[in-house]
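Why show two proteins at once? Because comparison is the fastest way to build intuition. When a single record is shown, students tend to memorize it. When two are placed side by side, the eye starts asking what differs. So, the first record is below.
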Amino acid sequence: MFGLFFFAVHIPAVFILPKKFALLPITGSLFGGLIFAYLQSQGISGFLLALFIHLLFWGTLHYLLTKSIDGFLGITPLKR
């Protein structure tokens, strides 16, 4: 159930990212959700590991998007 919820939460990526890259986070979130669901079924240590992996991923992606001049793979973050 968590894997499907994780997948559904990440579907709005198609509205933010260019179409050629939108499929990557959608399919990645489906598999990532299944992996995170398995990790979280292992108790508090699995939950903390899943949380660490998720934060590490988003931290790395944020770094790649903000530090490169042309954006990472042509993706630029939204400016507020």
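Second record. Ask yourself what differs from the first in the token line.
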Amino acid sequence: MNTSGSIIEQMSFNWNGVYNQESAKEILSQLIYSSRIPHAFLFKGEEGIGKYNTALQFAVNLNSYNNPEKASFIARQISNLSEPFIKYVIPLPRVKNETDSSGPVEKFNPDEIQELKTELQKKIANPFCKISLEKAKVIKVSSIREIGKFLSMNYSDIRYRFIIISDAHLMNEEAQNALLKNLEEPPEGVIFILLTPYPDLLRETIRSRCWSINLQPLDNNSICEILNKYFNIPFEAAKDVAPFADGSVTRAIELFENDFENMKEKTISFMRYSLGGKFNSAFNEINT
């Protein structure tokens, strides 16, 4: 592979909001230029490093490259998670009166539907926002079965359609079996992208059918920029948190929500008292 050439090609695509992931961007860019696109990908890496946005921008770049006249329209549709361009699958709660034959949101009441819509709008506005739905612990088999309807529709004017499965490791065995059937005989022009920090929880038969892309933890500067741009957190505050976030925006936000500044001050006081031999004061500082 010609590294210098591939970097030039990579830069001709719009990787807006994809921070750091140079290796992933280079591989995906080369695939677009080669026109040899795998039908399924597995994006692996810690939570909060940009797997979702990398998947979206890959979808934008691939479709825009194949239909440059409609690039702006395509980008808007994909960024807004609009079907039939994108089918976005996430963990959902099991609600009252729901049965195994129910659709994924068929039994949701109006408040539950509104909560889901609100969380999706947050995700559309901020790709680093974590969707938070109470009791959403699994990806329902009904959500995977519904993919079949998406696959059955023919849209000849859309070169590539995408199915993005977030937290793919939360599929139970039944859901994974249902997905495997779709992966075995995918229609032309449909691309699956599974996102997970825990690929080993997926069946080997699923992993073996996916092209693996490893995404890396973010550097501190990227975390600071994301916190400022997407969460309106001042740079100085972001700089304090970033070194403790393990390369994850999700972890950084958790630190802020848990009053990081207060924890930091308590830790400093604990160390100061401990070094001075004032152990009772040190432990009182932590326990208050």
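One difference worth noting in the second protein: The beta strands are 40-44, 86-89, 161-165, 190-196, 211-214.
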